[in-house]
Amino acid sequence: MHTIQVDLGAASYPITIGSGLLTDRALLEIHIPGRDVLVVTNTTVSKLYLAKLTGSFAQKRIAECILPDGEQHKTLQTAGWVFDALVAHKMNRDATVLALGGGVVGDIAGFAAATYQRGIGYVQLPTTLLAQVDSSVGGKTGVNHAGGKNLIGAFFQPRAVIADTDALATLPDRELKSGLAEVIKHGCVWDPMLFSWLEREMPKLLARDAEALAYAISRSCEIKATVVARDERENNLRAILNFGHTFGHAIEAATDYARYLHGEAVALGMLIAADLSHRIGLIDSPVKERLREILMLAGLPTEAPRIGAAKVQQLMQMDKKVMSGSIRLVLLEKLGRAIVTDRYPRAALEATLAEHFG
Ligand code: NAD
Ligand code: GLY
């Protein structure tokens, strides 16, 4: 078992990573001060892990809210169903929400916890690689809007993140690869050693070697905890964790959240951001090629869909990094260092979009 602290003063919390944690009652109960618990999960994860989890609590009053599975259900409507469950079970401010699932469940449940009775405690129990390396940490909660991804939400930190690595055994291969995209992102923007390690160890990760996965999760959480502790509300530094996301979110929205998994869209977005970084002279071509090769090695897509540059540019306008109408982008200065800037030639962005999206 490995614990990493997210240092945010009174809102600090531990991330615990290890095997068998979903049935570690002592660990879970530390973070559930009251009697009432609402487990929020989805139709897929509930079949696999809900009984295992709830079997751990003897003295609690446990209710369940089982949401439909899929990014297209990350909406105000499903968040509303979580509120309905909290109200139906007469839950008060001392209730705890347990978010059992991937990033979709975590984002919805966290948002409901952030806003129900102006905020109640919640614990992230991430069950996908993507959620264990990224989305369960850092307190970004929210839902999508027809006009764009994650447009409605709140920063609200969990009381704890408990990542049971055993859950990854049932994860489909495609989902595992999607999670690897966010690990690669951490290497790109922060840790060139992690990037090199990934280049060497990718076969082990794809074969679900427990030690390799544990390292990828721990190192990712350390990086995310460091960045979030320095800039919780994304005033500056935290935006680097959005590397690939401005283009990626546009790809997801343009394809109705159905064609690409989040990590797949981020993989494409990272390549496009690296291409723009290269076009404006920030990085050399070999860096761009290393990124393409590692994404291929991870079995992630490297050819963007021909959805049209104009459409992408329109969707990019709704990105949360836009300031006074100007699209700020996360670009690479070198492997392991990213910048957030709106100082790039517009013609270079347009040429990049035209090349990748048609
Ligand atoms: P997801 O939550 O849709 O989970 C992927 C699939 O795996 C789903 O079908 C789910 O039911 C299934 N699943 C979950 N755990 C499983 C398990 N152990 N075994 C078998 N199947 C399992 O997707 P995701 O990739 O986990 O998360 C993507 C979401 O996270 C996106 O909405 C993205 O915007 C969000 N996100 C949020 C943050 C943040 O900081 N809040 C960061 C990155 C991504
Ligand atoms: N996934 C980006 C962030 O949490 O800031």
Report on this model:
With 358 residues, the protein is of the alpha/beta class. The protein folds into 2 domains: 2-170, 3-Layer(aba) Sandwich (Rossmann fold); 173-357, Dehydroquinate synthase-like, alpha domain. Helix content is 46%, strand content 19%. The protein has 13 helices and 11 strands. A 7-stranded mixed beta sheet has the order 1-2-9-6-5-3-4, sandwiched between helices. The chain is globular, with a radius of gyration of 20 Å. The mean pLDDT is 96. Glycine (GLY) binds at residues 134, 138, 140, 238, 241-242.
Features:
single chain, 358 residues, alpha/beta, Rossmann fold, Dehydroquinate synthase-like, alpha domain, 2 domains, globular, binds nicotinamide-adenine-dinucleotide, binds glycine
Overall number of domains: 2
Low-confidence stretches: none
Number of strands: 11
Query: What is the percentage of strand-forming residues?
Result: 15-25%
Q: CATH superfamily name of the largest domain?
A: Dehydroquinate synthase-like - alpha domain
CATH topology heading of the largest domain: Dehydroquinate synthase-like, alpha domain
Which ligands occur here?
Answer: nicotinamide-adenine-dinucleotide, glycine
The profile of the biggest β sheet is: 7 strands, mixed
Per CATH, the class of the largest domain reads Mainly Alpha
Mean pLDDT: 96
Main-sheet strand order equals 1-2-9-6-5-3-4
Number of helices: 13
Secondary-structure element sequence? EEHEHEHEHEHEEEHHHHHHHEEH
The N- to C-terminal Cα distance equals 48 Å
Q: Please state the structural category.
A: alpha/beta
The Rg value, from CA coordinates, equals 20 Å
- Label the overall shape: globular
CATH architecture type of the largest domain: Up-down Bundle
Q: Can you give the helix content as a percent range?
A: 40-55%
